[in-house]
Structures are given as C-alpha cells and as structure tokens.
Amino acid sequence: MANEKTVKPFGMKDKVGYMFGDCANDFTFILCAMFLMKFYTDVMGVSAAIVGLMMLVAKAVDAVTDVLMGQICDRSSVTAKGKFAPWLRRLMGPVALASVLMYAVWFKNMPMGFKIFWMFFTYLLYGSIFYTGVNIPYGSMASALSSEPKDRTSLSTFRSIGATLAAMGIGVIIPMVVFYKDQATGNMMFSGEKMLCAAIVCSVLAVISYILCYTMTTERVKMTKVTEKFSFRTFWKTMISSRSLVGIVVSALLLLIVQLALTGMNNYIYPNYFKNRAAISLASLLSSLVILALSTFIGKVASAIGKKETSIAGAILGAASMGIAFFIHTGNIAVWFVFFLIGYVGLACFNLLCWAMITDVIDDMEIKNGVRSDGSIYAVYSFARKLGQAAASGLTGVLLSLVGYTKETAFDPAVTDGIYNITTLVPAAAFLALAIALTFLYPLDKKRVIENTKLLHGEK
After folding, report:
1. In sequence order, what are the residues at sequence separation of 6 or more whose Cβ sits closer than 8 angstroms to the Cβ of residue 195?
2. Which residue among 16, 39, 267, 388 is least enclosed by CB atoms within 10 Å?
3. Which helix (DSSP H) or strand (DSSP E) does residue 196 occupy?
4. 242 φ, ψ to 5°?
5. DSSP labels, 27-80
6. Across the chain, which distance is largest between two alpha carbons, in Å?
7. Cβ contacts of 382 within 8 Å, gap of 6 or more
8. pTM of the model
9. DSSP-based helix, strand, coil % in the chain, nearest 5
10. What residues form DSSP beta bridges with 221?
11. Per residue in 215-244, pLDDT tens?
12. Do the beta carbons of residue 418 and residue 409 sit within 8 Å?
C-alpha cells in the first residue's frame, strides 16, 4: 500500500458518499432479490424451481466474471480520481438499463421457452456482467478511502445504512404499489405492469446515487498497479490457502441465505399465509429501523469486544429466534413480528460489520503474501455473496415447488403452511451454521486485527 497523499482528511463527506454507493447498488439488487422470483412465478408463469435453477446456474458465470473484474481493478491505472471510482461512472448506465429489462412484462404472453430464455439472458446481463462491473470496484474502494481500521468500520456501517435506506424505500413503498386485491377472490395479486414502472424508478434513483458516490468520495490511499502475469490456478490456490478469506466467504454465503430467505419470502408469507399486503411494507420498515438503530452504536460494541465476537452473538440470537418461530407455527402476525425482528437484530450484527471484516481479510493476506490485491480479494467475496443469493433463491424456489406452490395453488392451506415453514426453518439453520463458521473457521478476532494493523503501520 502506498502512503497517503496530502489531501483533505477522511470525513463525513466520504462516509455519506460511500453510503450512496450502496444505495445505488441495492436499488437494483434488493429489487431483484425481493421481487424477481415473484414476478416470474406470478406474472410470467415460470416455475419457482426453474427461477431458482437460473439463479444457481448464473453463479457459475459469476465465478469467472467476478474474478475477471477483480483483476481488471487491480491492473487498472491510477487516475486523478483514483483506481476504483471511475468504474462507477462507466457502468452505472448499463447496470440500470439491464435491471429494467429483467421485468419485461410485455413478453408475458410469449411462449414459455422464450420467457425462460429472456429470464436467463437478462439476469446474466444484469448480475454477472454489469452489476459485477460496478460492484467489485465499489467494494474495493473502501480500502482506498482510508487505511485506518476505525474509518473502515465507519464505512462498513454507512454502507449498511445505504443498503437499509434503499431496502426501506423498496420494501415499504413498492409492495403497496405492485400488489392489489382481486375483487372476485379477495386474494392479493401481483401486477407485472406496475412492477416494470417500479424498476424504472429504482434504476433512475440508482444512477443518481452512483453520481453522488463518485463525486463525494476521495481515494486518498493510492494502490499500486498489479503487473504480474495472471494465473487462474495460482490465483485460486492463493485464495483458498487463506483461512481468513475462506472464513469470511463461507460466512458471507450463509449471511445471504439468511437475509434473502427472510426478505425474499416476504412476498409469499404475508400475502399468502397472513393474507395481509400491508404487512410486507411494515416488515421492511421495521427491519430497516432495526438496522438504522443498531448502526448508531454497533461500531462501539465491535471496538469493545471485536467484530467477529459481535457477529457470533448475533448469529446465535437469530438462530434461537427463528427456531422458536418454526416450532410454535404462529398464525398471529403480531407474535410473528416479535420473532422476526429479534432475528433481524441477529442478522444486523454481522451485516453492519461484514464490510469492515473483508478489509481486515485484505490486510491479513497482504501480511501473509506480501502483495495487496483489494480488487481480486473483494471479487472472491462478492462471488460468495452472489452464491449466497443464488443458494437462497434456488433453495426457496425448490422448496416452494416441493410444497406445491403455483399460481393456481398459491392460497391452498397446505401450501401456505409450507411457506411459513420455509420462512422460518431456512434462516434458523443458516444462522446456526453462520455462528459455527465464524467461531471455528474465521480467525480474525479482535486481538489479531489489532496486531495486523500495527504490522502494516510499521509498529512493533
């Protein structure tokens, strides 16, 4: 890592600017996570299992494109604006357009084969190419904004705040727009046309947020350009040999299974099981408020007991909450919200700190290997998060099919009970696995992070 130039000190402008970057990402990412499967099952008539399979297959492509983008970042020349920020300006338009194309409601009467083709094509275009192209440099940029651990922890917190603000807008407002009550049956139905309009609005907001991130942040830690010849085999061998990277990758995968199983199933458990459309918005609002509330003090807690230690405690809390909810199988929505929100507190403990933890991993690998590869390491981490998203969507898609969910059976009692079981059991199991992974696989506890920071700063 090069020494920091004499530039304006790291401050609130950087934090807020970086926050807008995750707002931008999640205006399209969370929209996809929450509504894409619902759109294709209920509007386009595609089987939930096929949608889940598509998301899993796409990750094989991401294994290549994420690593490729990480290498492109590491080998990019350092411009006056920095090494990573220019990629936001280059690709913000394409990623926004690709997001809109996924909700092509005008094709709903086309043959099923064409609809499946379009679903695969646009999902790969959005997630594996353009979202990868903007997300990898954005995540890598955190290391360049400051070299101080406390600053990076604050960036992780503000990044999570940005994601929460986007999730709040999407989760609270959009369900009230895209769901409507069928007068003949009294059931909550999903509007494909309104979903397309929502996607357009979110893409416009994403572009605006990318511009704010680009203009408000300053890359003051200048990274050296990687010039060594790239070997895919050597790359993966180096990555796999790092216990800290393997630990954070496994943990990220499990985190996304928890998060997307909870938020993605909102569109099924509330309108189908509880028969309450407004509850989708309420769940998104309350979960967002949980994250915003925790963000005000989670950094102090992590500084006191450690990021790893705080995340483990949260995972145990979440596993207990969702496990109890599974066994009591409540039909009372107020009781459900109690367990749901306790589980979300557990989720937020790791979610607010994970971005700071990946910079700890980058530092750890620099000490071990003598080379700093922010883009490449973040690419592996990003791939794990996408894999977690796909695993959650794929698993829930298969499970929805196994309990018999189709457009026609969506409100059958046996199916709605199955929806409840999926929404509780999958997060409970993933929470428990997350606690185990952080405890026994991820090695960067508070003591080791402090030691690494001293080594990088030349202290004894």
Report:
1. 35, 39, 43, 103, 105, 178
2. 16
3. helix 192-216
4. -90, 115
5. HHHHHHHHHHHHHHHHTS---HHHHHHHHHHHHHHHHHHHHHHHHHHHTSPPBT
6. 74
7. 66, 70, 132, 135, 136, 139
8. 0.68
9. 80, 0, 20
10. 4
11. 999 888 776 666 566 566 666 676 777 888
12. no
